[in-house]
């Protein structure tokens, strides 16, 4: 389908984007790589009156060592996350997950901030940031605020970002050599995950997060508690779907997703225990 008519403006900085959001209000949407917003517009599931293009705000594309964590500009492309030597050394899980997003075309246009701000429960990178215990930096008219990833995703395609805020940075703790795993089941390599699991070892907090198992990216709290209590990977994985209401669609029933979550979580925990990388 063809999107509804809209006006287009280009922001030259994060501050200008915040100003434009304040000017146009709920009628405006930010455009970064476009791989989340444009499909919704083509299906008329989103019809913003104004598109604010932030794709050329270069000062939001970076990867920096920030002491106990790595700071990633929100407009850093997936392919740059995948290839960055600092992330490969300090947070190897994140480059690996970025390399599994979509296909090369998507990875060369899509941005980590766009993926996270979109809040799609079927996306890989939000779950990775959740498992790592990361945080998000938002900039608005009143300045910056830091939002823990666990408080960022509020509902289906809904986040804690205010209408006049811009996501500017993603912060992920260094992993200190912890084991990690990313398990993803999909029909084709470039498809959204039917179910995915991200897990890290205790040195990195022991987080376990699930893809496409709820209305938001979600931590598998029951699994984390079981592992912390000394349960085996198989026993801990048995509670992967506890308290969750997985979606039903053309690819899978809720029952099939619960089964996949159990199988993939066991595999992830076994790989973490084996000491990957």
Tell me about the biggest sheet? 5 strands, antiparallel
Question: Low-confidence spans: pLDDT under 50, at least 5 residues?
Answer: none
| CATH top level class name of the largest domain | Alpha Beta
Number of domains: 3
The share of residues in helices is 25-40%
Which band does the percent of strand residues land in? 15-25%
- Span between termini: 44 Å
What name does CATH use for the topology of the largest domain?
Uridine Diphospho-n-acetylenolpyruvylglucosamine Reductase, domain 3
The strands making up the biggest β-sheet line up spatially as: 4-5-10-6-7
User: Rough shape?
Assistant: globular
Helix and strand pattern: EHEHEEEHHHHHHEEHEEEEEEEHHH
* Quaternary structure annotation: single chain
Mean pLDDT, nearest integer? 93
- Count of separate DSSP helical elements: 12
| Helix-strand makeup class | alpha+beta
Radius of gyration: 18 Å
CATH architecture of the largest domain: 2-Layer Sandwich
Number of strands: 14
Comma- or semicolon-separated keywords:
Uridine Diphospho-n-acetylenolpyruvylglucosamine Reductase, domain 2, five-stranded antiparallel β-sheet, Uridine Diphospho-n-acetylenolpyruvylglucosamine Reductase, domain 3, globular, Enolase-like, domain 1, 277 residues, alpha+beta
Write structural notes for this entry:
The chain has 277 residues and is an alpha+beta fold. Strand 8 and strand 9 form a beta hairpin. The strands form four sheets. It has a five-stranded antiparallel β-sheet. Strands 11-12-13-14 form a four-stranded antiparallel β-sheet, with helices on both faces. The protein is globular and about 55 Å long. The chain folds into three domains: 7-53, Uridine Diphospho-n-acetylenolpyruvylglucosamine Reductase, domain 2 (2-Layer Sandwich); 60-173, 2-Layer Sandwich (Uridine Diphospho-n-acetylenolpyruvylglucosamine Reductase, domain 3), CATH 3.30.465.10; 180-273, CO dehydrogenase flavoprotein, C-terminal domain (Enolase-like, domain 1), CATH 3.30.390. The protein contains twelve helices and 14 strands.
